[in-house]
Amino acid sequence: MMRCKKCGGKAAVQMKQHNLALCREHFSEWFVEQTERTIHKYRMFKRDERVLVAVSGGKDSLALWDVLAKLGYETVGLYIHLGIEEAEGYSDHSLALAQAFAAARGLRLEVTHVPERYGESIPQMAARTARGRHRACSVCGVVKRHSMNEAAMRLGCGVLATGHNLDDEAAVLFNNTLSWSVDMLLRQNPVLPESPGFPRKVKPLCRFYERESAAYAILNGIEYVYEECPHAVGSTSLVNKALLNQLEQQSPGSKLRFYSTFLKAKAQGAFASGAEGNAEPPPLQFCPSCGQPTTTAGLCLFCRLVDGSAPQE
Ligand code: SF4
Ligand code: ZN
Ligand code: ZN
Questions:
Q1: Is 39 annotated as a binding residue?
Q2: Which of 14, 52, 117, 150 could pair with 21 as two cysteines, CB 3.0-4.6 Å apart?
Q3: What is the radius of gyration, based on Cα positions, of the chain?
Q4: pTM as predicted
Q5: Above 50 in pLDDT, residue 275?
Q6: Domain locations in the chain?
Q7: ipTM
């Protein structure tokens, strides 16, 4: 039997990459402490800042919200209802889980209901405007980004926290490295500084493996949506994750090394412009309709998407 390194009790989670096994109680304690360490290490936010937590109803975002609340940070949750009806009402189901989570802990959850607010669901917007495979995801990315910025500004949150874990970050890194997208590599950071019209964006779970955030959620009785969004099927991100998992099996710790040595190399100036994460590209102007910063002239991409004048891709 594997034993907990702290108390010698029965281990619940084994983390080969850290050469560490912990029992239920000590694993949860470790997870909370490590999150706080990451928040400090990358100077994500301070006690007096209000944090908007983007909540999808999945294990990562609910685990993140749970930990931030336990650590005593002031948080507001944001659920963006995308109107995805496939997979037995995916959006309704994940909203219900997010609401149950918030209610049980007395936390405040804001909901942006995309179909009610803009008259169309993500799949409907995609069918109208986008071409190509995974078209829902390209539309979804624009809408989520807009909605998160909008909610952060409206609710007075200077910080937006998302539940991205190490598997997510390593998959993105792998993709950006394959194409050597230096711009994207420069912007891939645990913290993206605030700029006019944009909150600071932080990823406090970026050093945890996906199985660790799942373990935290399960061991803490958090009910979350198990299924991936039906539109994620066959995505590059899932393919990359599967590849990296194979690598991890052969050589435990390789995912963590891949990501952390990248951050270290960048901090040492490997990509010329150096340590601090570049902020959002400087906006040239503000959208005349929604007021968010935009790099294009006239209406921003989101507003063109919603009013029907934007052909995507
Ligand atoms: Fe949106 Fe695509 Fe993610 Fe589904 S898989 S939530 S459609 S980006
Ligand atoms: Zn223990
Ligand atoms: Zn706009």
A1: no
A2: 14
A3: 20
A4: 0.92
A5: no
A6: 32-281
A7: 0.97
